[in-house]
Amino acid sequence: MTDNAVARKSAIRAEVRRRRRARPQAERDAADAAIARHGLELASELRAESVALYLSTPTEPGTRGLIAALDNEGIRVLLPRPTLDGGLEWVCSGGGELMTPGLGTPEPIGAALAGDPLGDADLVFTPASAVDRHGGRLGWGGGYYDRALVGIRPVDAVAGGTEPVRAPIVTIVFDDDVLDSVPTEPHDVPIDGVLTPSGLLRFAPG
């Protein structure tokens, strides 16, 4: 990655942090409710039985309303927890939460699920600092989701198709976090859509 790309990533993250910290609480509350509504609509459309989500930080678009809505519909919700080797393990929602030492991010309480729970999910929601209109996603620099998304395996073809498909990857951000472009690298997994308080924006394959 070039020095210019590194500098641009840092600049975007800094600007997103500034905007999010300045966002009024009333606007946050309205955004959280809209995210829950749109997210549940998408899960219902996909007839999802298992959804990977995450516990939002105080400045991110809130996900707890969406978690509760999915729980109420009997949809299994998978929540990530960082591991010592830089990966993510997954826990079913409902066990409470605590703050991750050193990272200052919330993590779920409960036993880690065995097998490949992320690979078995029907829909994967991810956080980000920003996304672009071409499926590019810019995280926060830890690389947790970059590594996890690469491991999502395709599932059997659906609707009479012949090509394997994988669960849709949809990133949750505020409307003003959707940019014309963000720096990406060749190994980055493109996202399939972005969920904002205004609704769902789908990206065409390729």
What is the compact description of this entry?
The chain has helices at about 5-20, 25-45, 65-70, 115-120, 145-150; strands at about 50, 75-80, 90, 95-100, 105-110, 125, 130, 135-140, 170, 180, 195, 200.
Set out the fold topology:
Layout (H helix, E strand, L loop, with lengths): L2 H20 L2 H21 L4 E3 L11 H9 L3 E7 L5 E5 L4 E3 L6 E3 L8 H4 L2 E4 L3 E3 L4 E2 L5 H7 L18 E4 L5 E2 L13 E4 L2 E4 L4
Q: How many separate structural domains?
A: 1
Please report the number of helical segments. Answer: 5
Task: Please give the number of β-strands.
Answer: 12
Quickly give the CATH architecture. 3-Layer(aba) Sandwich
Explain this structure:
By secondary structure, the protein is of the alpha/beta class. The chain has one domain (3-202): Rossmann fold (3-Layer(aba) Sandwich). It is 30% helix and 21% strand. The protein has five helices and twelve strands. Strands 3-2-1-6-9-11-12 form a seven-stranded mixed sheet. Strands 8-7-10 form a three-stranded mixed sheet, with helices on one face. The protein has a two-stranded antiparallel sheet with strand order 4-5. The longest helix has 21 residues, at 25-45.
What are the salient characteristics of this protein?
206 residues; alpha/beta; Rossmann fold; 7-stranded mixed beta sheet; 3-stranded mixed beta sheet; 5 helices; 12 strands; NagB/RpiA_transferase-like; FTHF_cligase; ligase; magnesium; 5-formyltetrahydrofolate cyclo-ligase
